[in-house]
Amino acid sequence: QVRLVESGGGSVKTGGSLKLSCAVSGFTFTDYYMAWVRQAPGKGLQWVSYISHTGAYTNYADSVKGRFTISRDSAETSLSLQMNSLTTEDTGVYFCARGGVYYDSSAYFLFTSWGQGTLVSVSS
Amino acid sequence: QSVLTQPPSLSAAPGQRVTISCSGSTSNIGSNYVSWYQQLPGTAPQLLIYDNHKRPSEISDRFSASKSGTSATLGITGLRTGDDGDYYCATWDRSLNVVVFGGGTKLTVL
Q1: What is the mean pLDDT of residues A53-75?
Q2: A20: how many CB neighbours lie within 10 A of its CB?
Q3: Is A35 within 8 Å of chain B by CB?
Q4: Which of A44, A100, A108 sits opposite B88 (nearest CB)?
Q5: Degrees to nearest 5, angle at CA B21 with B15 and B24
Q6: Which of A105, A110, A117 has its CB closest to that of B35?
């Protein structure tokens, strides 16, 4: 059974930092792309970042580029998102998502399983 | 303003069929696979459709989808009150070099 469990959310002031984590189980972690997708209160889904199955390739939304860093730990089967210089625009629920298997052409823009999300609240 | 355009809301009666459109351009839908996600109230999104029209094994055949040119469509038949929620399309935009989601469609079954 595929399972993704996020942690690390919380309240922070503008300019602060948070590190989100996602513990995964139930599948071969090193075969899949992974991603973070967020949802501002009452708004739609917004892709944040993805990382390839080996960790060699990453990509970010323009709104977080240079401030957020995605990483993965194969030994721990976990995904992380280091978020720095947070603004109120970063407030929302952050979902950890499993992408596609590495040999699929759509691996980096397909979200096959989702965690329940962790809430990040940034205030001024 | 989302790169992919969906109707903000739709409503239909139980048992009826509804279609949700997702309109894009040659740099996104026109050149990449489309996926669809269902988000029921208070829950995480769930993959409904991938590679334009394929369903994960656990998804009911009441859900179907297609793509033509720069538009994609999700269809739901035999509507149930449990289908109430938000539906999103997504794909890759090769010009922007990012994953793009539609703005979402709130489906009400009444």
Answers
A1: 96
A2: 23
A3: yes
A4: A44
A5: 165
A6: A110
